């Protein structure tokens, strides 16, 4: 270019407008401005995160995370009876979890767990990108720490707001807790399926064993299950089984790649076997015990429903596992097939202590919550005669050496009933079973054969009020009526009360309050309870020895002879049958164990359809039929291995007693029915006594034992049992039980 041209170009440049120069300069400054803007936003973002981090507090654990199952044990403190919980969880320390199980979880969920800061930036970015595209913030970012935070502190909602809180809290938690503590809380918090929260409960739900015994293959499966239990539980089908096998293999291979498992160990890790699924519920016969335990914890130990259902309690009951199983088996084997509506209750108590060692209140608590052992009341029948015997001995006017007229029928002014259904009842008539004449019998003989006419006389001597008082002192808690017919069992009682009342006699006159909970402890050692038996002496020991001696005759040679022939140890008891067979009993005891069995039909009310008089394979049910057999079946197992103790010898108190002279009850002399009684009565002669207490020999004629039915296959009643009505007056025509 010439000098002239250069000069012309320079002149043109100088003539360029300021506007043009400004436009070019702005184009060059925009990148710098954007850079400064982004830098400012970054600084603000970091500052904002800092402020958010500082303002975010670690919340309190949610209820689901802290709830733990309360485990109910049998009396050995080891055998599990049931679980009480809204959330089935049992927390353990990390040291109890084998290292290969811990590593299976890391291989499945977070292999960099011990190196990261609680979050995964790439995972978080992936979750945000999904949310920006319109999805939910559900993918990525789920380190073990984040999963722990979500399950332990937060809700399960799937939003960016919850995800942001999860991230911030995860970073905080990672700085506040050790990695081992985070992993321990994570393993105890997450859901594994089958209703199991936490790895200990999951180990038992899938494999039936403690987590400390879990193998690498089993650990790999548990690590698989947390992704989605409904996709991996083999019980749900072949597809789930295949999913579980594939996922477990992936985890085991990852453990080899991480150096956490040797190739040889990997080869040995075959897909595990599983136990059948068992829903944690208070079902079956044991469900009645669980409810009684819950009631006692609430009323006696003063625990709330929340304490019981989610407090992680370890509850040891008084229920002996072998005895409980024996009770269930005895009922299952003895209840006749085809006998619709029959109900039975059984309670077994430790004398002098009150610990309930076995209880049968029904076949399935889940279907019917009415407890035949503790809720039902039924007429006592002849089992109540024992209380009249106690009252008569307490009066000082009767000795068990005395003999009485056992003829039938007899008429007593005191038993007159103007409103009676028959002329016989209105005139105070009392019959023996089958209207049998027994002649003169001693008190033990009359007890052995449940002679109504003799016990009617004893109640006149004792007075009905004292009979009722003796029953209450022994342990009967239901309302009792002070009428002369109470000796024949007109009052309605509970099986639990009869068991406890007879346990008082087995304990030589010491009554104990029945209880079901032996001890309770919490997993965090914040609560500890140990039961103390509540006892009281209510009867003189010598008096009880005479009563027990009389009751021994029932088992040795009387209406309960079936038990004596098959129980290889000393026992005492009493059969009982109410009028028209509305209820039937056998209650008895050894020195170490008292057991009551009561049977009734339908709702127990006095209606014709509730009479147990045409039971398939049995005919009429009395205390000497199914109840004594059921009692014997149970007691043979329950007393196995116990020392064969003997009862105290009878003391023969009131040895110089002669019954008070009253009008002699007139006997019609045999089975002549409702023969009118004479208008005058001769006085009762005073029984002959000797200087030494020698009981009169038992009569040689005994009632024929009820034959064993041929039908042995058990059957279970299915009709629900409503609350039973109150006492129904006895007709006085008391069958021998």
UniProtKB/TrEMBL annotation:
<keyword id="KW-0961">Cell wall biogenesis/degradation</keyword>
<keyword id="KW-0511">Multifunctional enzyme</keyword>
<dbReference type="GO" id="GO:0008360">
    <property type="term" value="P:regulation of cell shape"/>
</dbReference>
<dbReference type="GO" id="GO:0030288">
    <property type="term" value="C:outer membrane-bounded periplasmic space"/>
</dbReference>
<comment type="similarity">
    <text>In the C-terminal section; belongs to the transpeptidase family.</text>
</comment>
<keyword id="KW-0378">Hydrolase</keyword>
<feature type="region of interest" description="Disordered">
    <location>
        <begin position="656"/>
        <end position="737"/>
    </location>
</feature>
<feature type="compositionally biased region" description="Basic and acidic residues">
    <location>
        <begin position="7"/>
        <end position="19"/>
    </location>
</feature>
<dbReference type="InterPro" id="IPR001460">
    <property type="entry name" value="PCN-bd_Tpept"/>
</dbReference>
<dbReference type="GO" id="GO:0009002">
    <property type="term" value="F:serine-type D-Ala-D-Ala carboxypeptidase activity"/>
</dbReference>
<dbReference type="GO" id="GO:0009252">
    <property type="term" value="P:peptidoglycan biosynthetic process"/>
</dbReference>
<protein>
    <submittedName>
        <fullName>Uncharacterized protein</fullName>
    </submittedName>
</protein>
<dbReference type="InterPro" id="IPR001264">
    <property type="entry name" value="Glyco_trans_51"/>
</dbReference>
<feature type="compositionally biased region" description="Pro residues">
    <location>
        <begin position="717"/>
        <end position="728"/>
    </location>
</feature>
<dbReference type="GO" id="GO:0008658">
    <property type="term" value="F:penicillin binding"/>
</dbReference>
<feature type="region of interest" description="Disordered">
    <location>
        <begin position="1"/>
        <end position="27"/>
    </location>
</feature>
<keyword id="KW-0133">Cell shape</keyword>
<keyword id="KW-0808">Transferase</keyword>
<keyword id="KW-0121">Carboxypeptidase</keyword>
<feature type="compositionally biased region" description="Low complexity">
    <location>
        <begin position="675"/>
        <end position="693"/>
    </location>
</feature>
<dbReference type="Pfam" id="PF00912">
    <property type="entry name" value="Transgly"/>
</dbReference>
<dbReference type="InterPro" id="IPR023346">
    <property type="entry name" value="Lysozyme-like_dom_sf"/>
</dbReference>
<feature type="compositionally biased region" description="Polar residues">
    <location>
        <begin position="660"/>
        <end position="669"/>
    </location>
</feature>
<feature type="compositionally biased region" description="Pro residues">
    <location>
        <begin position="694"/>
        <end position="708"/>
    </location>
</feature>
<dbReference type="InterPro" id="IPR036950">
    <property type="entry name" value="PBP_transglycosylase"/>
</dbReference>
<keyword id="KW-0328">Glycosyltransferase</keyword>
<dbReference type="Pfam" id="PF00905">
    <property type="entry name" value="Transpeptidase"/>
</dbReference>
<dbReference type="InterPro" id="IPR012338">
    <property type="entry name" value="Beta-lactam/transpept-like"/>
</dbReference>
<dbReference type="InterPro" id="IPR050396">
    <property type="entry name" value="Glycosyltr_51/Transpeptidase"/>
</dbReference>
<keyword id="KW-0645">Protease</keyword>
<feature type="domain" description="Glycosyl transferase family 51">
    <location>
        <begin position="80"/>
        <end position="255"/>
    </location>
</feature>
<dbReference type="GO" id="GO:0006508">
    <property type="term" value="P:proteolysis"/>
</dbReference>
<keyword id="KW-0573">Peptidoglycan synthesis</keyword>
<dbReference type="GO" id="GO:0071555">
    <property type="term" value="P:cell wall organization"/>
</dbReference>
<feature type="domain" description="Penicillin-binding protein transpeptidase">
    <location>
        <begin position="347"/>
        <end position="592"/>
    </location>
</feature>
<comment type="similarity">
    <text>In the N-terminal section; belongs to the glycosyltransferase 51 family.</text>
</comment>
<dbReference type="GO" id="GO:0008955">
    <property type="term" value="F:peptidoglycan glycosyltransferase activity"/>
</dbReference>
């Amino acid at each position: 270019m010439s000098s002239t041209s250069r000069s012309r170009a320079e002149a043109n440049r100088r003539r360029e407008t300021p506007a043009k120069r400004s436009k070019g300069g702005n184009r060059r400054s925009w990148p710098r401005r954007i850079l400064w803007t982004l830098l400012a936003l970054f600084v603000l973002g970091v500052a904002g995160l800092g402020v958010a981090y500082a303002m975010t507090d670690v919340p309190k654990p949610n209820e689901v995370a802290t709830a733990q199952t309360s485990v109910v044990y049998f009396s050995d403190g080891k055998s599990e009876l049931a679980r009480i919980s809204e959330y089935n969880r049992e927390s353990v320390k990390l040291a109890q979890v084998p290292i290969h199980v811990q590593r299976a979880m890391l291989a499945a969920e977070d292999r960099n767990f011990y190196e990261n800061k609680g979050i995964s930036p790439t995972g978080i970015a992936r979750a945000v990108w999904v949310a920006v595209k319109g999805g939910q913030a559900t993918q990525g970012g789920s380190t073990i720490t984040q999963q722990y935070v979500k399950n332990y502190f937060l809700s399960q909602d799937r939003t960016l707001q919850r995800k942001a809180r999860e991230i911030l809290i995860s970073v905080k938690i990672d700085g506040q807790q050790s990695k081992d503590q985070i992993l321990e809380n994570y393993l105890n918090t997450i859901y594994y399926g089958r209703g199991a929260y936490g790895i200990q409960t999951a180990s038992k739900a899938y494999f039936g064993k403690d987590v400390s015994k879990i193998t690498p293959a089993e650990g790999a499966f548990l690590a698989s299950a947390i992704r989605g239990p409904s996709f991996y539980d083999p019980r749900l089908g072949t597809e789930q089984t295949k999913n579980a096998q594939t996922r477990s293999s992936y985890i085991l291979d990852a453990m080899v790649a991480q150096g956490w498992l040797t190739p040889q160990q990997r080869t040995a890790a075959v897909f595990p076997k599983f136990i059948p699924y068992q829903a944690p519920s208070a079902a079956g016969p044991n469900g009645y015990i669980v409810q009684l335990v819950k009631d006692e914890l609430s009323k006696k130990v003063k625990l709330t429903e929340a304490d019981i259902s989610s407090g992680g309690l370890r509850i040891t009951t008084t229920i002996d596992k072998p005895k409980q199983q024996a009770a269930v088996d005895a009922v299952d084997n003895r209840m006749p097939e085809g006998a619709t509506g029959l109900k039975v209750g059984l309670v077994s108590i430790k004398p002098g202590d009150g610990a309930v060692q076995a209880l049968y209140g029904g076949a399935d608590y889940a279907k019917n919550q009415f407890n035949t052992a503790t809720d039902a009341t039924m007429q006592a029948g002849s089992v109540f005669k024992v209380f009249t015997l106690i009252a008569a001995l307490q009066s000082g006017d009767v000795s068990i050496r005395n003999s009485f007229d056992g003829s039938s029928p007899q008429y007593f002014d005191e038993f007159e009933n103007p409103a009676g259904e028959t002329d016989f009842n209105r005139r105070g008539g009392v019959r023996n079973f089958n209207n049998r004449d027994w002649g003169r019998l001693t008190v033990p003989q009359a007890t052995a054969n449940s002679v109504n006419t003799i016990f009617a006389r004893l109640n006149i001597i004792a007075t009905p009020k004292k009979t009722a008082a003796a029953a209450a002192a022994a342990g009967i808690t239901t309302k009792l009526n002070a009428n002369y017919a109470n000796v024949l069992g007109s009052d309605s009682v509970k099986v639990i009360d009869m068991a406890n009342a007879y346990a008082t006699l087995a304990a030589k006159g010491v009554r104990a309050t029945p209880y079901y909970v032996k001890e309770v402890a919490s997993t965090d050692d914040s609560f500890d309870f140990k039961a103390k038996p509540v006892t009281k002496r209510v009867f003189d020991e010598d008096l009880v020895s005479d009563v027990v001696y009389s009751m021994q005759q029932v088992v040795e040679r009387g209406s309960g002879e079936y038990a004596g022939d098959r129980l290889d140890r000393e026992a005492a008891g009493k059969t009982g049958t109410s009028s028209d067979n509305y209820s039937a009993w056998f209650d008895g005891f050894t020195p170490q164990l008292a057991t009551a069995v009561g049977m009734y039909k339908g709702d127990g009310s006095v209606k014709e359809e509730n009479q147990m008089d045409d039971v398939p394979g049995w005919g009429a049910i009395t205390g000497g039929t199914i109840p004594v057999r059921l009692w014997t079946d149970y007691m043979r197992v329950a007393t196995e291995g116990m020392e064969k103790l003997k009862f105290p010898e009878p003391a023969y108190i009131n040895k110089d007693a002669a019954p008070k002279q009253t009008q002699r009850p007139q006997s019609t002399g045999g089975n002549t029915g409702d023969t009118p009684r004479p208008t005058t009565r001769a006085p009762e002669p005073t029984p002959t006594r000797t200087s030494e207490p020698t009981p009169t020999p038992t009569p040689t004629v005994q009632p024929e034992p009820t034959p064993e039915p041929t039908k042995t296959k058990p059957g279970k009643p299915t009709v629900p049992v409503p609350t039973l009505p109150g006492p129904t007056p006895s007709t006085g025509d008391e069958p021998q039980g």
